[in-house]
Every structure is written in C-alpha cells, then in structure tokens.
Amino acid sequence: MCLFFTGCGKKARITTLESLSYSFTDNMSRYGTGRLEIVWKNGTYTATVKPVNEPDESAKTVRLAPEKVLALEELFRQYNVGSWNGFDKNNKGVLDGRSFSLSVKMAEGQEIYARGYMKWPKNYSEVAGALKALMQELAGN
Q1: Which residue in 69, 74, 76, 135 has the fewest CB atoms around it within 10 Å?
Q2: What percent of the chain has pLDDT above 70?
C-alpha cells in the first residue's frame, strides 16, 4: 500500500545526502532493534547510532566525516537503492521475524522510503551489511 510513501514506487535519484534514518530488528529480544540516523546541519554531518542488543540509553551521537557520507551515496548508487522507494512488503505468515525501515532525504528534494518484514528489496543484504558495519565502527565496537 502506497499511502505512507511520498512518490511511491518512483525511483529516487541518489544525490547529496541530507538525512538518513535506518532501523532494523534482528531478533525479538528486548534490545533487538538497531538504529542509525544521519543528519546534515550547520555544515556538519552527525550520526546517532544505537547498536542492536544494547539499551536505548547506549545511543551515541558522533560527528561523521564527509567521506563516509560520500561512500554511502556511492553504495546507494551501486546497489540501486533509489529503486527501493515505495517498497512496503511483508510476510504475514511469520510472527517473530526480522524487519527494516529506511528513510533517506537528498538535499535536492529526492526521497526514499522503504520498509519490510521478512521481505527485502533487491541488494538489501549488501546495503544492510554496509550500514551495520558503519554502525559498529561509529559505536566503537
């Protein structure tokens, strides 16, 4: 259903990242959700990371080097993440599964909204792996 998505199904062009919000649930434990938020504000990128299996209070906000953001933009181009815009699929037959949510805004106005529960867009594992690796690096793990 596309009611929740701006430009549902319309491929977004990857340009200059303005903000990113990525969350995922890997397990059903109390702290089974991880979260990464990146924001461009006052000429600086900051990232807030809450690792999976850690309490919300452990979330850490750090300055993010511009080259890390450039690498994310390139990763998104390489794996065609712009085509994920409007992805909203789930497997209702699974009760305790994994999920993800991704919201990306570009400085030029392009947006990507995607989410899934036990269903993944093409190349999700490669992109999720890179985002999770960045989260671990930023969290100091």
Answers
A1: 74
A2: 89
